[in-house]
Design goal:
about 160 residues; seven-stranded mixed beta sheet; 4 helices; 7 strands
């Protein structure tokens, strides 16, 4: 990673900036609708959620040393023992297309594996075509919709053995 960029655990000071990045991305892809993370009340306080339980979930902020440029997290996918869910991978437009998404996914896979998970699950939407391409290039396999889905609007589901 370019030394001007850093990846660190989320803090309360990051909450507003990452929430804005998430909402900006979802709006750009016409996913600012109910059934997406756009309306999750926790979105404004991600640090409280991810820092509440050690070793079962985490969220990392991508910065240029000053400005929040994106983030990615994982948490237990409660419906399936041993599965972590890749959550909230979003980047600011200014850093997209530079391989940072791949870096963030690799990082979160390692962190989830270190926490004892054996599979990485994710749910996304066909509107997010660049994200779909990234996940497929990184070895995620499309699966049928699980019985338990966190965001009802999502229509693509993936799994990868860690």
């Amino acid at each position: 990673m370019d030394t001007k960029y850093t990846l660190r655990k989320i803090t309360e000071q990051d909450d507003a900036a990452i929430a804005q990045i998430v909402r900006t991305n979802l709006k750009a892809y016409k996913l600012d609708v109910p059934g997406t993370v756009y309306f999750d009340p926790e979105l404004n306080h991600l640090s409280a959620f991810y820092n509440a339980e050690e070793n079962t979930r985490d969220y990392y902020i991508f910065t240029d040393g000053v400005k929040v440029l994106g983030g990615i997290g994982f948490a237990a996918f409660e419906a399936e023992p041993g599965w972590a869910e890749l959550q909230k991978l979003y980047l600011a437009d200014e850093v997209k297309g530079n391989g940072f998404g791949k870096l963030l996914v690799r990082t979160i896979e390692e962190k989830a594996k270190e926490s004892g998970y054996t599979y990485m699950y994710l749910e996304t939407h066909t509107n997010l075509d660049k994200a779909l391409n990234l996940y497929e290039r990184m070895g995620f396999q499309q699966i049928d919709r699980p019985a338990s889905v966190n965001h009802s609007t999502m229509n693509r589901f993936y799994l990868k053995k860690l």
